[in-house]
């Protein structure tokens, strides 16, 4: 399972895992910058707020 892989990677200080995590965070950062630059505050709020459906 993925949990077991993460534990092994953390224990071994696997550089590949560190690079994958770094790249994923970088992509998230870039996407957020695009969202922020192109959307209004109201549109952003609609995307990132949770509304419970009755």
Automatic annotation (TrEMBL):
Keywords: Lipoprotein, Membrane, Myristate, Transmembrane, Transmembrane helix. GO terms for cellular component: Golgi apparatus. InterPro entries: Dymeclin. The keyword Acetylation does not apply. The keyword Membrane applies. It comes from the Eukaryota. Pfam families: Dymeclin. GO terms for biological process: Golgi organization. The chain crosses the membrane at residues 16-36. Belongs to the dymeclin family. This is Dymeclin. It comes from Mesitornis unicolor.
């Amino acid at each position: 399972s993925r949990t077991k892989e993460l534990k092994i990677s953390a224990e071994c200080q696997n550089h590949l895992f560190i690079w994958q995590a770094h790249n994923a965070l970088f992509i998230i950062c870039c996407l957020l910058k695009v969202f922020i630059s192109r959307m209004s505050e109201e549109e952003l709020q609609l995307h990132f707020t949770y509304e419970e459906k009755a």
